Amino acid sequence: MEQKEIQVQPVDLKKLTEKPTLFTGGHRACAGCGMTIMARQVLLAASDNPVVVGCATGCLEVTTTIYPYTAWNVPFIHNAFENAAATVSGVETAFRALKKKGRIPPDKKINFITFGGDGGTYDIGIQSLSGAMERGHRMLYICYDNGAYMNTGIQRSGATPRGAHTTTCPVGTIVPGKPQKRKDLAAIMSAHNIPYVATASPHQPRDLMKKVRKALAVDGPSFMLVFSPCRLGWAFPPEQAMELSREAVSSGFWPLYEVEYGKLIINEPSKDANLAPIKPWLEKQGRFKHLFQKGNEGLLNQIQEDINHEWESLKKRTTM
Ligand SMILES: Cc1ncc(C[n+]2csc(CCOP(=O)(O)OP(=O)(O)O)c2C)c(N)n1
Ligand code: SF4
Ligand SMILES: [Mg+2]
Questions:
Q1: Ligand 2: does its nearest atom lie under 6 Å from the Cβ of 62?
Q2: What is the DSSP string of 269-292?
Q3: Cα 234 vs. chain centroid, distance in angstroms?
């Protein structure tokens, strides 16, 4: 892929506080939910142009659009899991077609953004996402990853980490939580050779918003995978959401990195850093509490080994 640098304005937090709120408070998400913090940051970063949002079913859509209320001060299209990316790709195509016909000025810009949860992205909507990215639509797809189908009662998804308790991989005398590792969705999206792919976390708002701006600046498709703590499904006190996000990054469970025109850059932890051990992060969440019972030491070690292995593989993919 052609190597280019994506140039964007730095994120000025003070200026952003003066902008109109495109994603408002007063929605029905749980206190301490990472997803709505992420949505607010994304819309703040995107607000330089008009924004059109598409959203798959899931907690983000359900908690923010309870009739007759909405938290969205932008055009908002609710879609099924299967076709959220396809729908926004169609809207983006219509926008280009209307420009060609002279019904929209040629220099008009709109930021097209699709949100989907991990269930809606890793599993059910991956075919329409893959198609939209491959066709080259100018749109940003954001997967907020809370590691399960939370809105319907915490069922396992392709993003659920190994060892986590969910209602469809419940901990019992035989099963110690989810037996499989999660999918590497950011790598799958990078393999589409699209201009921009990034991981992010809401505890680093400047980094997240800079990445949204980069994603929207490229002339083509972009994808972001955002860490999204769920206090209900993970079972932690609401005030710990940002601390859990911080530790997810420092332990290497959720490294922050970007792939710009094929070039992978790790943002955090630094490439030479020693990863913090994963155990304290797991201990803070009820979904992993069985791992600390006698007999599950092997699984605990396996989780640490998975992270070490993935971190080494990620470092090998960097180009600088
Ligand atoms: C095709 C289809 N299957 C099932 C459902 C029921 N459903 C609604 S929300 C939801 C969970 C979505 O999980 P995820 O995408 O991870 O988003 P989260 O709720 O975790 O934010 C499910 C299964 C649905 N709406 N459509
Ligand atoms: S169930 Fe989880 S993802 Fe859904 S609103 Fe509550 S904290 Fe957020
Ligand atoms: Mg989910």
A1: no
A2: S-TTPPPPPSHHHHHT-GGGGGGG
A3: 17
Is the C-beta atom of 169 inside 6 A of ligand 2?
Answer: no
C-beta 59 within 6 A of ligand 1: yes
Ligand 2 and 30: CB distance under 6 A: yes
The ligand minimizing its distance to the Cα of 62 is 1
Tell me the average pLDDT across 216-235: 98
Report the distance separating Cα 112 and Cα 221, nearest Å. 10
From 141, 17, 21, 115, select the one nearest 73 (Cα to Cα): 21
Domains of the chain in start order, with CATH, are: 13-317 (3.40.50.970)
Atom of ligand 1 nearest to the CA of 35: 21
Which of 63, 65, 115 most suits a substitution to test ligand 2, by most atoms within 8 Å of the C-beta? Answer: 63
Question: From the centroid of its chain, how far is CA 43?
Answer: 14
Q: What's residue 17's pLDDT?
A: 87
Give the ligand 1 atom nearest the CA of 123: 15
With a 6 Å cutoff on the Cβ, whether 29 touches ligand 2 is yes
**Beta strand pairing status for 140-145 and 222-227?**
parallel
How much distance in Å is there from the Cα of 320 to the middle of ligand 3? 33
Spatial distance between the Cα atoms of 145 and 237, rounded to a whole number of angstroms: 19
Determine whether 261 is exposed, middle or buried from the number of CB atoms within 10 Å of its CB (0-12, 13-18, 19+): middle
**Contact status, residue 242 vs residue 31, Cβ threshold 8 Å:** no
- Among protein residues, the one whose CA lies closest to atom 2 of ligand 2: 230
| pLDDT over 70 at 145, yes or no | yes
298: how many CB neighbours lie within 10 A of its CB? 9
Q: Decide: helix, strand or coil at residue 258.
A: strand
This prediction's pTM: 0.97
Token code pair at residue 223: 């994808």
